Amino acid sequence: MDPKQLRIVVSGPVGAGKTTLVRALAERLQVPVVPENMRQIYALLHDYTTIKSSYLSSQEETQRALDHLMEAFFKWADERERIYAGNTGFVADRWEADLLDLWLKLFAEVRCDARTQKLYSMMIDRSRSMSFAITLPPSNFSVESMNEDGLPRKRSFNLTLLSHVVTGGLIRLCPALKVINVNNTTLSVEERLDQIYRIVMNSDSDVRARSK
Fold first, then answer.
1. Predicted pLDDT of residue 147
2. Where are the beta strands (DSSP E) in the chain?
3. Rounded CA gap, 100 and 120, in Å?
4. Mean pLDDT within 128-139
5. Alpha-carbon gap, residue 29 to 59, rounded angstroms
6. Are 80 and 127 in contact (CB under 8 A)?
């Protein structure tokens, strides 16, 4: 298998070492990194939360902020599709399963089934073009207060665990996707990298793999 043709997506809770692994794996495979790039979504989420919580905001203003926030999810997905199409191989920091996980947490009580179905279909369709999905376990939660985009990390155990479980469940709904579940939180970046590299270079079946 030519490592430069591998298309790998990486999911994991905040502080799990996801971005560090993405960069190291991309360097090992000599393929580009696809950055998370969710800054605009989080900025619009902040705007929506502020407007929604203000008693001075009208219903129209709140709805407009919500619409802008939802549109940002689809703009992110459209940009990802463009990046995927422009690269033979890559390692992506988060992907559509992570996007849908965040969508479900934010909009579980919003009547938006058609939009949710569209995002779900995007995830399933794009998973078919991926070589592997890698999932990382929660860390010990002693993490930096800011992520690589300069945004505050979530410190809540509940939210971190929920995100891990939901994203993992969504990934399991992708029938053609090979999954590497990294379960050992004590492994160094280099140890994780070596195990994952051996799996991706020696895998010639659709059986899901596990790195212990």
1. 54
2. 7-11, 33-34, 90-93, 132-135, 179-182, 209-211
3. 7
4. 92
5. 50
6. no
The amino acid at 90: F
pTM, rounded to two decimals:
0.88
Residue 7, helix vs strand vs coil: strand
Number of structural domains found in the chain: 1
What is the residue whose two structure tokens read 């793999």? 209
The residue among 47, 181, 189, 167 whose CA lies nearest residue 104 is 167
What domain range is 123 assigned to? 3-211
The helix/strand/coil state of 209 is: strand
Q: Report the distance separating Cα 175 and Cα 181, nearest Å.
A: 16
DSSP helix/strand/coil, 176? coil
User: Residue 132 burial (CB < 10 Å; 0-12/13-18/19+)?
Assistant: buried
Q: What's the confidence (pLDDT) of residue 208?
A: 45
User: Encoding tokens for residue 74?
Assistant: 């689809």
User: How much is the mean pLDDT over the chain?
Assistant: 89
Tokens 């659709």 label which residue?
206
Give the three-class secondary structure for 129.
coil
